[in-house]
Amino acid sequence: MAGFTFLPMSHDHDHDNDLDPMAARVKALETILTEKGLIDPAAVDAIVETYEHKVGPRNGARVVAKAWSDAAYAEWLAKDATAAIASLGYSGRQGEHMQAVFNAPETHNLVVCTLCSCYPWSVLGLPPVWYKSPPYRSRAVIDPRGVLAEFGLELPLTTNIRVWDSTAELRYIVVPLRPQGTDGLGEDELAALVTRDSMIGAGHALAPGAAA
Amino acid sequence: MNDERGFDEPWQAQALALAFALQDAGVITAGEWAEALGRERAVHGLKDDGSDYYDSVVAALEQLIEGRGLSTKAAMEDVAAAWRRAAHATPHGMPIALENDPQRRRA
Asked: For residue A30, what are the domain limits?
């Protein structure tokens, strides 16, 4: 580093930067792994960029909207979700396989990861805080109906609830029921009705007119 | 429950990216990562709202790195302390570089 940069005149002294302890620990890990030649900082930056800006539940919403609109695609998604999703440009990390589980009037699907918080990043982005919380992770399996009720989803007792426990190798996306009154809608309009929670199974797709 | 926020702080994104970068580089497998993170969550992930998730990510990374003999807890703490000193020694508004650690420059 050559020389110093002059600070704006309104500053009458230098303010020190403060790196909080967690940030310093992460910087230390990055430094050590870089010095060992195990990671490339540019690759790490690219991953950050992807997760901050490029992946998110809108990807999954496109998948669901296409499955609603295109029976052949829905069939492909049911048989080989990894390939059907990748065909739209959304690929997970190597070794991550996707399975799509379809809600039906008599069956509702709910996704959890009881081990840590394996999540279908490529189609849903970052997991919501509640997905990572211990109560959700334990209670989704023991009492899924109760958990869903807390999400405002009161399902009839005749509806079976299937709970899918994600692993590092296999992640799930729920294809919610297509809302009624959406017959004339195109994929873009349909995608706007697909919420993140509905693709985890913690909600229904929005009714037409309810989309933000 | 409709929280769409991603990361609260940049270090959380950095930590997660390090875990993925190690998987991409073949240093660890996805299964090993899930297991290490799961173990950390089982031991320390106690907050009901899940807000300590990224603390667990960092701890799991440290455990894996130490377990592989890639570094030691003491060495990781030393480098973290150097980063904090470097930050304090860097004028506000300038990028923090490890070279700015006063102890490192004297060495």
From this structure: 21-53
- The secondary element (H helix, E strand) that includes residue A177 is none
pLDDT digits (tens, 9 = 90+) for A139-196: 999 999 999 999 999 999 999 999 999 988 899 999 999 999 999 999 999 999 999 9
Contact A67, A74 (CB under 8 A): yes
- Enter the ipTM: 0.89
Neighboring chain A residues of B70 at a CB cutoff of 8 Å: 32-33, 36, 38
pLDDT at A125: 86
Instruction: Give tens-digit pLDDT for A121-155.
Output: 889 888 888 888 888 988 999 999 999 999 999 99
* Whether residue A80 sits in one domain with residue A145: yes
Mutation target among B11, B35, B62, B66 for the A interface, most CBs of A within 10 A: B11
Both A31 and A132 in a single domain?
no
Q: Which of residues 87-146 of A touch B (CB under 8 A)?
A: 93-96, 115-118, 125-126, 128-136
CATH of the domain at A158: 3.90.330.10
Give which of A48, A97, A147 to mutate to test B binding, by max B Cβ within 10 Å.
A48
- A128 and A46 in one domain? no
Distance (Å) of CA A161 to CA A101, A138, A148, B70, B97: 12, 16, 10, 45, 53
Say if residue A46 is in the same domain as residue A70. no
What is the reported pLDDT for A132?
84
Query: Collapsing DSSP states into helix, strand and coil, what is residue A85?
Result: helix
Do A135 and A87 lie in a common domain?
Answer: yes
pLDDT tens track for B90-102: 877 777 888 888 8
Q: Is B87 on the interface with A (CB under 8 A)?
A: yes
Number of domains within chain A: 2
